[in-house]
Amino acid sequence: MKKLLFPLLFLSASSFAQSQLRPQIDQGADAIESKVIEWRRDFHQHPELGNKEFRTAKIVADHLRSLGMEVTEQVAVTGVVGVLKGGKPGPMVALRADMDALPVTERNDLPFKSVNTATYNGQETGVMHACGHDSHVAILMGVAEVLAGMKDQLEGSVKFIFQPAEEGIYEPGVTSFGAKQMVEEGVMKDVDAIFGLHIWAQLEAGKVGYRSGPFLAAVDNLDVTITGTQAHGASPWSSVDPIVTASQAIMGLQTILSRSVNITQNPAVVTVGAIHGGIRHNIIPEKVELIGTIRTFGDEQQALVHRRITEIITNIAESAGAKADVNIGKLYPSTVNDPDLTSKAIPSMVAAAGEGNVVVMDPVTGAEDFSFFQREKPGFFIMLGGMKQGLDPAKVPSHHTPDFHIEEDGFKLGVRTLSYFVVDYMGMKK
Ligand SMILES: [Zn+2]
Ligand SMILES: [Zn+2]
């Protein structure tokens, strides 16, 4: 028993010592707020698509260098990594922001409205920070400046990861994700834990939201071809009809969530988004193609849902005398918050936001490639409120839309929360 008690006492004592940095962080966050807002507006006006964040990356790299950090550029194409060496030994804590914008034409009437356009998959389009990554970059630049101001007192080092292409690159023959590529290039090797946030348009500014365990979904693509036998539409008995077979298969997929998934644990989604087949009233075609998206929470559920999709489609096709080719393309894994790290991080969020402003959120069926970092080392990902207080979350424009809007008065809380995570984690690790 004695052996157990000593480390516990030691841990709690060291964590108190670290919290002495919090007032300094608060002062720093107050002082930097207007700069963070200014940076965000500049990024908002000059958004760049994934793997093309050249201007953004240069501003970030120059800023980190001006703070005395070791900076590496062109990590995973346009990524920037800065390391702030603390004055005392301790862990390497990583913080991450994503830098990319989306092919969306902004409809907001703002003095810093996006001016950029681009060609995306052969189409002319506006470019917009319609997911709020402009605020992530600005907030993390603010954190870098605040923590650099107290680097002699830091018991460990901080790795600032500015990643490209969180929204993914989907070009003919190329599918890639910024975080995945950064991991492949070794960015997580010397990291002990990683923290990140996403501004959230449906959560009031001044609040932070989190969830322990699976938080955001894994996203996988479904591609199916059902092949039958072509015939005259007037004599269906001489066909193997892929349209009827595809219809049965789609209905069969509905039983995965109602009969195979334990709905008391985590939700899941199987959506067929398109059916392609046939050309004329009176021709039963040879082939039908289905495409869809699969959202699951955690590796175990993902494996179950993938297996049931394949079994249902293959066996329904076989029963009709048709052949099914089922392909599931894995994109992002589920964003899973390490339960131990989550429980240790809760006091930091409560101290930063106030007890009533820390909310446990429902699982989000969208995805985040932060999950690739979390597969390497324990990671904690939170949502930062970006909605005007008093609005109905169901009625505000959602992420990825032309009217997407973010309130800037929650940014300071983002700076404080990420900074608290760093110093509190260092305190616990001592
Ligand atoms: Zn997004
Ligand atoms: Zn996003």
From TrEMBL:
<dbReference type="Pfam" id="PF07687">
    <property type="entry name" value="M20_dimer"/>
</dbReference>
<keyword id="KW-0732">Signal</keyword>
<dbReference type="InterPro" id="IPR002933">
    <property type="entry name" value="Peptidase_M20"/>
</dbReference>
<dbReference type="Pfam" id="PF01546">
    <property type="entry name" value="Peptidase_M20"/>
</dbReference>
<feature type="domain" description="Peptidase M20 dimerisation">
    <location>
        <begin position="223"/>
        <end position="318"/>
    </location>
</feature>
<feature type="signal peptide">
    <location>
        <begin position="1"/>
        <end position="19"/>
    </location>
</feature>
<keyword id="KW-0378">Hydrolase</keyword>
<dbReference type="InterPro" id="IPR017439">
    <property type="entry name" value="Amidohydrolase"/>
</dbReference>
<dbReference type="InterPro" id="IPR011650">
    <property type="entry name" value="Peptidase_M20_dimer"/>
</dbReference>
<protein>
    <submittedName>
        <fullName>M20 family metallopeptidase</fullName>
    </submittedName>
</protein>
<dbReference type="InterPro" id="IPR036264">
    <property type="entry name" value="Bact_exopeptidase_dim_dom"/>
</dbReference>
